[in-house]
From TrEMBL:
UniProt pathway: Ketone degradation; acetoin degradation
Superkingdom, natural source: Bacteria
Species in which this protein is naturally found: Nakamurella flava
Domain Histone deacetylase: 21-319
Name of this chain's protein: Acetoin utilization protein AcuC
């Protein structure tokens, strides 16, 4: 394996929506401060990026939107100034002075990592600043200004990659990426998220399967509020591997919002860091099986920025690099000393949420599960049944065949 690429530029920390906004740049800083002493970043090749040009951003965003973001960044009267439109202003997407440059730099980082993979300079890359999956062609949404995930996929296509699979494990539906590629047969978008009945952005139903020439290339797995590790992983394994295998991608792009965790304040799923780590390992296995290891991993949401996000993304960095951490690994004392002044909650002592730090989640989640096999149906099983019925036939798969 070639040396993995890490996108890191301190200037990306200027993507700061201010004050008490839940998407706080400290989550990126604390991740690095945790990963470094654990040796996770050893062997990574770090790249930086200048802000994406207008021409590059226009691969996914309208010229009017880009010029409006620039103008708002330069002349904002206040963080909630609503005069610009395009979703800018207000508590979710406040205007801030470095808005254009920092968002365009994050986008450029994901694009540069994608190009490095397409050109054979690396097999794997990570941009934990990225994963801003809610941004649409002409408006900001859900804390996201420019959609770096979509721009990275476009960069891969521009480099000659013929099929890209995008898998999104954020608790929120990857609506911006889906909307930008829902009519493109070259891109499969798969999103597993909390049901739109209970969570923003209110999209991501199983019946959303793409349109036009892209009909069949959107797969959505809306799981009910309260879903835990075992049920979430059961849904993941019952849908994601089969769908991605059927599509036969040449590169895998994944989004790793850590907000499906049970402690996240903005959502209602019940995953642990251990369950999230299990998903990272499964996605790495898919990349090894299907794409020759070519894998771009992006960050995303996650709003328990001290207890959860740094551990989850440190595991992600370790898995991408092929040097996964034992979940029982102790948290370095220096990191705890730094974090203790930032929260009044008890800090974790290991890289695991489970008793004994074994990292072992319920085995039912590892092998997938199909509700027609005779076990008592649970709410998540209805979601599995619905998405397989809606999406699998369009991918040439039998929704009732447990081998798919």
């Amino acid at each position: 394996m070639t040396a993995p690429v890490l996108v890191w530029d301190d200037r990306m920390l200027e993507y700061d929506l201010g004050g008490r906004h839940p998407l706080h740049p400290i989550r990126w800083q604390l991740t690095r401060r945790l990963a470094e002493p654990l040796g996770v970043l050893d062997g990574y090749r770090t790249i930086t990026a200048e802000p994406a040009t207008t021409e590059e951003l226009q691969r996914c965003h309208t010229a009017d939107y880009i010029s409006t973001v620039r103008a708002a960044s330069e002349f904002a009267r206040g963080p909630e100034d609503p005069r610009y439109g395009h979703g800018l202003g207000g508590p979710d997407n406040p205007i801030f002075p470095a808005m254009h440059d920092s968002a365009a730099r994050i986008a450029a980082g994901s694009m540069a990592a994608a190009r490095a993979i397409a050109r054979g300079e690396t097999d794997r890359a990570v941009n934990i600043f990225g994963g801003l999956h809610h941004a649409h062609a002409d408006h900001a949404s859900g804390f996201c200004v420019y959609n770096d995930a979509a721009l990275a996929i476009t960069a891969l296509l521009d480099e000659g990659v013929e099929r890209v699979a995008y898998v999104d494990v954020d608790v929120h539906h990857g609506d911006g990426v889906q909307s930008l590629f829902e009519d493109d047969p070259r891109v499969l978008t798969v999103s597993i998220h909390e049901s739109p009945m209970t969570l923003f952005p209110g999209t991501g139903w199983a019946t959303e399967t793409g349109r036009g020439p892209g009909h069949g290339t959107a797969v959505n797995i809306p799981v009910p509020a309260g879903t835990d590790d075992a049920a979430w992983l059961r849904a993941f394994h019952a849908v994601v591997p089969g769908a991605v295998r059927a599509f036969r991608p040449q590169v895998l792009v994944t989004q790793h919002g850590a907000d499906a965790h049970r402690d996240d304040p903005l959502a209602d799923l019940q995953l642990t860091v251990d369950g999230q780590r299990t998903a990272y390992l499964a996605l790495r296995d898919l990349a090894e099986e299907l794409t020759g290891g070519r894998w771009l991993a992006l960050g995303g949401g996650g709003y328990e920025v001290i207890r959860v996000v740094p551990r989850a993304w440190t595991h992600l960095l370790a898995v991408v690099a092929g040097r996964e951490l034992d979940p029982a690994t102790d948290i370095p004392a220096a990191w705890s000393d730094l974090a203790v002044d930032l929260t009044d909650r008890r800090l974790p002592t290991t890289m695991s949420d489970l008793d004994g730090g074994t990292g072992a989640v319920d085995g039912r989640g590892r092998v997938g599960y199909h509700p027609w096999q005779g076990a008592a149906e649970q709410p998540v099983d209805r979601a599995i049944r619905d998405v397989r019925a809606a999406a699998f036939p369009l991918l040439g798969l039998d929704p009732l065949d447990p081998r798919d």
